[in-house]
Amino acid sequence: MINSLGGRALCAAAAICAVVSAASPAAAGVPGTAAVDWSAAHGASVASGTRWTEPSGTGLGSALVVRGELRNSGTACSSVWVRWTYDFVPGPYHRHATQCGTGTAEVNVRLDPYRPTTTGQLTVCHGTADTRDCGPAVSLTSWPVNG
């Protein structure tokens, strides 16, 4: 029996974590998830591709892999930026691909390890320096529910 409020909170948090972990593909013995399409755009640029999970290189849990390309049909530079939120604490955006002028650039992002409490967003921005002029961010960590 748990007599302290702190003990109850810890017990409740452990139960929630157990439910979340059991829902992950790695916990179910599945090596990874099926690929899910993603797409983001801003101005004359579109980034698109697929994302999936696969076994982690650390041997624990899974890794999130995001692959695709940034296509720019304009003359200016455009960039793909990704931000991870760990345990409800958002980190800064980091640039992962840039295309200046007409052409394509590879988008190749890997988060290892990927945890159930980690979320991610991807956005396409004008320029290369910052995220002040960007299109809507898309989730990299929402997964379709298959019935």
UniProtKB/TrEMBL annotation:
Show which residues constitute the signal peptide: 1-28
Name of the featured protein? Secreted protein
Keywords (alphabetical) are: Signal
